[in-house]
UniProtKB/TrEMBL annotation:
UniProt xrefs under InterPro entries: ChsH2_C (IPR002878), ChsH2_Znr (IPR022002), NA-bd_OB-fold (IPR012340), Thioester_dehydratase-like (IPR052513)
Organism: Thauera terpenica 58Eu
Domain ChsH2 rubredoxin-like zinc ribbon: 26-58
Residue intervals of the ChsH2 C-terminal OB-fold domain: 60-124
Record-linked PANTHER family: BLR3430 PROTEIN (PTHR34075)
Name of the protein in its database record: DNA-binding protein
Amino acid sequence: MNAARADHAKPLPALTGLAGEFYRWCAQGELRFQRCEDCGRHRHVPRELCAHCASSKWVWARSSGRGMVFSWTDVVRPLHPAFAEDAPYAPVIVELDEGVRMLSRVVDCAAGELAIGMAVELVLTQVSDQVWLPYFRRSKD
Ligand SMILES: [Zn+2]
């Protein structure tokens, strides 16, 4: 489930607040999303209130790490210079089995091979001493 540290000279997420908690779970080898204790829905990105029922009661619930490609785009000319050497690349929206969608990458798949509905699974990738990013690869099942 975990990949070796990548050479990552790119902007990193701030490890503060609820987003910091999200990335600390990733660094521990677990993808977790907030799950509302009132309506049971999962959510991402992390936030204080449930967008469905406005409850402030929630827990960090472990994700299966399994999902599918919901959408993607081909980036030919990155807007940030740190991504210039990666181009062309394809940021992907993954829909997890828990129903949340997140921006990520499918690391073992060229942009021309992506397909909507393609099954993917989590591969946590260490990019700094403290940060592991939740990327995905084609599901082996
Ligand atoms: Zn709710």
